[in-house]
C-alpha cells in the first residue's frame, strides 16, 4: 500500500540544500516555509515551525543535515494529535458520521463496520442521509455486502427519526454498534448545521456521552477550507475524532497538522482507497514522513 | 463568503503603502524592502486561498513590475491601485470572458465526458448539465458508466427522472467502455443531440483506472472532456489536473461546491497549469445549481476582497 512512504532515513535534497544555505540566512527560512505550505500546511503554522527552528539554531544546536532533518521532523510530529476511536468494551455505542459533501462518509462507515465486525462486534447502520439521490440505496448495498442490519425509512424521511429507531433497537437488544450516516452538508449553511444539532440532541436524549462519538470526515485533498469545516462542525457538535479520507490521493496531509494545531481536534483514521480494508488508525509517523518527503522534494 | 480576509489584505497593503509615503514625505522613492512587503502580502493572500505555490511564485514575479510602476506609487492611494492591478491580472489569468460549451449543432450527436476524483461531483454535475441543456432546447441523454460505486447507477437514474431526462443504463454491466459506447450508439439512433457520460471517480495516481478512462475517451471521442474538481481542493490541484490532462486531453474544467466558503484558489492553479477554460461552477446540490464561471467574481473571492475592487474602480 504505502509505497510512497518509503522511509527516507537520509535527509533529502531540500534539507541538504537548506543546510548548505546555513540556518542563519533568510533564504533558508523562506524555502522551508514554502515547502511546508506546499504540503497544505497553513501559512501561519509554517512560520511557527520555522520560528522554532530559528530559535534553536541560534542556540547553535544544528550541526548537520541529519540534525536539521530530525529537528524539523520532531517539531511537526509534536503538532499532530491522534485518538483511538475503536469501541473499547462491549457496551452499546453510536457513531454519528458527518462532513461536507462527497468526502467519503458513507464509504468510511462501511470500512469501520468491516473493521469492527472483524473484531467480533455486532454492527448496524442507520440511513440518516435521506436527502441525496440513492444515498439510502448506497448504504443498503454496503449493508448487504457486509451482511448487517440497516435501519432505513427511505428518501425524504426525518433523519433524526431514522437514527432514533436504530438506537431504540440496539438498546433493546443490549449489544451492538450503530453507525449513523448523515447527508453531506456545507459547514457554512447554517440551516443544515442546525439539522445536525437536532440529530445530536435526539441522540443525547437516548444515550450517555461515553457511548456516543461524533466523527468528522475530511478529504485529504482539501485545502485551507478544511480548517473551517473542522472549526464549524466542532463548535456545533463537538468532534471526537477525524477521518482523513482519500489519503491515497498522495496529498501530503498537511491539513491534519493545521487542524490538530489550531483546533486541537485529534485524528482517528485515514482512508486509503475504496475497498473495505482501506482504513487504518491514523499513523502520525506515516503522516510526518509524507510531509517530510514533500518538504525534501 | 467571509469578509474578514477582505479587509485584512486590504488594510495591510494600505498600511504598507501609507507608512511608506509618510516616511518619504510623499516623494516616490521606494525602497526594495517596501515593495517586497507589499508583494509578500499578496503572496500570503494567494496561499491562504490555496493557490498553488508554484503558481503564486510565477504570478508574483510577473506582476511585480507592473504593480510597482511609477503611476501606482504616485497615485493618491497606491495600496488600492496595487490591489486593483493584482486583481485585474488574476482576472486575465482566469480567462477574460466566460467560456461556454463547444457542442455540435442539434442535427448531430455531441458527446460530453465527465471525469475526476472520487466524490468531486461528477454525477450531480452530469444531471445539472443535462437540465441546463434541456432548458436551452437540446435533447440530452445521460449515460451511467460508473459501474464501481455502490448505487451510482440508481443515483443517476433518480437524478435523471427528477429533471425528466432519459438515462442509459445497463444492468449487470462490467465494462464502462462498452456502456459508454452503447450509450453513444443509442444516442445517435434515437436522435438525442447530446450524450453526457458519467464515469466512476478515480485517483490521478491510479494507473489502471487512468488507463480505463483513456479507453473510454478513445471509444467515444468526446466534444467536451470535462474534469469535475472540488473548489475546495488545496495545493494538490495542479498534480491532479496535470495527470488527467496528460491522459485524456481535457477541454475544460467544472469546479463544484463553490457554495462552500472556500476562497477557491484552485481555480487559478488549474487554469494556469492546464490552460483549460473553467466552464461552470457548481453552487449547490440541486439541478439548477450550476452557474457560468465569471472570472471577475472569482478573482475578488481569491483575493478575499469582496466588493473592494469595484469601490476602487469608482474612486
Ligand atoms: N480513493 C479513495 N476513494 C474514497 C475514499 N473514501 C471514499 N472514497 C470514494 O469517494 C466517493 C464518495 O464517497 P461517499 O462515501 O459516497 O462520500 P459521502 O461523504 O458519503 O458523500 P455524500 O453522502 O454525497 O456527501 C466514493 O466514490 C467513494 O468510493 C478513500 O479513502 N480513497
Ligand atoms: N454543496 C454542493 N454539493 C455538491 C455540489 N456538487 C455536488 N455536490 C454533492 O457532492 C456529493 C458528491 O457528488 P457526486 O455527484 O455523487 O460526486 P461524484 O464525483 O459523482 O462521486 P463518485 O461517483 O463517488 O466519484 C453529493 O452529496 C452531491 O450532492 C455543489 O456544487 N455544491
Ligand atoms: Mg454519503
Ligand atoms: Mg458519481
Automatic annotation (TrEMBL), chain A:
<keyword id="KW-0963">Cytoplasm</keyword>
<dbReference type="InterPro" id="IPR036225">
    <property type="entry name" value="SRP/SRP_N"/>
</dbReference>
<dbReference type="GO" id="GO:0005047">
    <property type="term" value="F:signal recognition particle binding"/>
</dbReference>
<feature type="domain" description="SRP54-type proteins GTP-binding">
    <location>
        <begin position="92"/>
        <end position="293"/>
    </location>
</feature>
<keyword id="KW-0547">Nucleotide-binding</keyword>
<feature type="domain" description="Signal recognition particle SRP54 helical bundle">
    <location>
        <begin position="1"/>
        <end position="80"/>
    </location>
</feature>
<comment type="similarity">
    <text>Belongs to the GTP-binding SRP family.</text>
</comment>
<dbReference type="InterPro" id="IPR000897">
    <property type="entry name" value="SRP54_GTPase_dom"/>
</dbReference>
<dbReference type="GO" id="GO:0005737">
    <property type="term" value="C:cytoplasm"/>
</dbReference>
<dbReference type="GO" id="GO:0003924">
    <property type="term" value="F:GTPase activity"/>
</dbReference>
<dbReference type="GO" id="GO:0005886">
    <property type="term" value="C:plasma membrane"/>
</dbReference>
<dbReference type="GO" id="GO:0006614">
    <property type="term" value="P:SRP-dependent cotranslational protein targeting to membrane"/>
</dbReference>
<feature type="domain" description="AAA+ ATPase">
    <location>
        <begin position="91"/>
        <end position="248"/>
    </location>
</feature>
<dbReference type="InterPro" id="IPR003593">
    <property type="entry name" value="AAA+_ATPase"/>
</dbReference>
<dbReference type="InterPro" id="IPR013822">
    <property type="entry name" value="Signal_recog_particl_SRP54_hlx"/>
</dbReference>
<dbReference type="Pfam" id="PF02881">
    <property type="entry name" value="SRP54_N"/>
</dbReference>
<dbReference type="InterPro" id="IPR042101">
    <property type="entry name" value="SRP54_N_sf"/>
</dbReference>
<dbReference type="InterPro" id="IPR027417">
    <property type="entry name" value="P-loop_NTPase"/>
</dbReference>
<keyword id="KW-0472">Membrane</keyword>
<keyword id="KW-1003">Cell membrane</keyword>
<keyword id="KW-0378">Hydrolase</keyword>
<dbReference type="Pfam" id="PF00448">
    <property type="entry name" value="SRP54"/>
</dbReference>
<dbReference type="InterPro" id="IPR004390">
    <property type="entry name" value="SR_rcpt_FtsY"/>
</dbReference>
<keyword id="KW-0342">GTP-binding</keyword>
<dbReference type="GO" id="GO:0005525">
    <property type="term" value="F:GTP binding"/>
</dbReference>
<keyword id="KW-0675">Receptor</keyword>
<protein>
    <submittedName>
        <fullName>Signal recognition particle receptor protein alpha subunit</fullName>
    </submittedName>
</protein>
Amino acid at each position: 500500500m504505502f509505497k510512497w512512504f518509503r522511509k527516507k532515513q537520509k535527509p533529502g535534497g531540500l534539507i541538504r540544500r537548506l543546510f548548505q544555505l546555513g540556518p542563519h540566512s533568510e533564504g533558508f527560512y523562506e524555502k522551508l516555509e514554502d515547502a511546508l505550505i506546499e504540503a497544505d500546511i497553513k501559512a501561519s503554522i509554517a512560520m511557527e515551525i520555522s520560528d522554532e527552528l530559528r530559535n534553536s539554531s541560534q542556540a547553535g544546536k544544528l550541526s548537520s543535515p541529519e540534525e536539521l532533518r530530525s529537528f524539523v521532523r520532531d517539531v511537526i510530529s509534536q503538532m499532530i494529535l491522534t485518538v483511538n476511536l475503536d469501541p473499547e468494551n462491549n457496551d452499546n455505542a453510536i457513531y454519528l458520521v458527518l462532513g461536507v459533501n462527497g468526502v467519503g462518509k458513507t464509504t468510511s462507515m462501511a470500512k469501520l463496520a468491516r473493521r469492527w465486525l472483524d473484531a467480533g462486534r455486532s454492527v448496524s447502520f442507520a440511513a440518516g442521509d435521506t436527502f441525496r439521490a440513492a444515498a439510502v440505496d448506497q448504504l443498503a448495498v454496503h449493508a448487504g455486502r457486509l451482511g448487517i442490519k440497516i435501519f432505513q425509512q427511505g428518501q425524504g424521511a426525518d433523519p433524526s427519526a431514522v437514527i432514533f429507531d436504530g438506537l431504540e433497537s440496539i438498546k433493546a437488544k443490549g449489544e451492538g454498534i450503530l453507525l449513523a450516516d448523515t447527508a453531506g452538508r456545507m459547514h457554512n449553511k447554517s440551516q443544515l448545521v442546525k439539522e445536525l444539532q437536532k440529530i445530536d440532541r435526539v441522540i443525547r436524549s437516548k444515550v450517555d456521552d461515553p457511548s456516543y462519538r461524533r466523527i468528522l470526515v475530511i478529504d485529504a485533498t482539501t485545502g485551507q477550507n478544511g480548517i473551517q469545516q473542522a472549526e464549524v462542525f466542532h463548535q456545533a457538535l463537538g468532534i471526537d475524532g477525524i477521518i482523513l479520507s482519500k489519503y491515497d490521493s498522495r496529498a501530503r496531509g498537511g491539513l491534519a497538522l493545521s487542524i490538530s494545531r489550531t483546533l486541537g481536534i485529534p485524528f482517528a483514521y485515514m482512508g486509503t482507497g475504496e475497498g473495505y480494508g482501506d482504513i487504518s488508525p491514523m499513523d502520525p509517523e506515516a503522516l510526518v514522513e509524507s510531509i517530510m518527503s514533500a518538504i525534501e522534494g | 463568503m467571509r469578509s474578514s480576509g477582505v479587509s485584512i489584505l486590504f488594510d495591510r497593503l494600505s498600511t504598507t503603502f501609507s507608512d511608506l509615503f509618510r516616511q518619504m514625505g510623499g516623494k516616490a522613492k521606494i525602497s526594495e524592502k517596501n515593495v517586497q512587503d507589499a508583494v509578500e502580502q499578496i503572496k500570503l493572500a494567494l496561499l491562504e486561498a490555496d493557490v498553488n505555490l508554484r503558481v503564486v511564485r510565477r504570478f508574483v514575479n510577473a506582476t511585480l513590475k507592473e504593480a510597482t510602476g511609477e503611476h501606482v506609487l504616485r497615485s493618491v492611494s497606491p495600496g488600492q491601485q496595487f490591489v486593483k492591478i493584482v486583481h485585474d491580472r488574476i482576472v486575465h489569468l482566469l480567462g477574460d470572458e466566460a467560456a461556454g460549451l463547444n457542442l455540435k449543432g442539434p442535427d448531430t450527436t455531441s458527446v460530453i465526458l465527465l471525469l475526476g476524483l472520487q466524490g468531486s461531483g461528477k454525477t450531480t454535475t452530469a444531471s445539472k448539465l443535462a437540465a441546463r441543456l434541456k432548458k436551452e432546447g437540446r435533447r440530452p441523454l445521460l449515460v451511467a458508466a460508473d459501474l464501481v460505486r455502490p448505487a451510482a447507477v440508481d443515483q443517476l437514474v433518480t437524478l435523471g427522472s427528477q429533471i425528466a431526462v432519459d438515462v442509459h443504463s445497463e444492468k449487470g454491466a462490467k465494462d464502462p467502455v462498452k456502456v459508454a459506447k452503447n450509450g453513444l450508439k443509442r444516442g445517435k439512433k434515437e436522435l438525442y443531440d447530446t450524450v453526457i457520460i458519467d464515469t466512476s471517480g478515480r485517483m490521478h495516481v491510479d494507473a489502471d483506472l487512468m488507463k480505463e478512462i483513456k479507453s473510454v475517451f478513445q471509444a467515444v471521442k468526446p466534444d467536451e472532456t470535462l474534469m469535475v474538481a472540488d473548489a475546495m481542493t488545496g495545493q494538490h490541484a495542479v498534480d491532479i489536473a496535470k495527470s488527467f490532462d496528460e491522459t485524456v486531453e481535457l477541454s475544460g474544467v467544472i469546479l463544484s461546491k463553490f457554495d462552500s466558503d472556500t476562497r477557491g484558489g484552485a481555480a487559478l492553479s488549474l487554469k494556469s497549469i492546464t490552460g483549460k477554460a473553467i466552464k461552470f461552477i457548481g453552487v449547490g446540490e440541486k439541478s439548477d445549481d450550476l452557474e457560468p464561471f465569471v472570472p471577475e467574481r472569482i478573482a475578488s473571492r481569491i483575493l478575499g476582497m469582496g466588493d473592494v475592487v469595484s469601490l476602487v474602480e469608482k474612486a
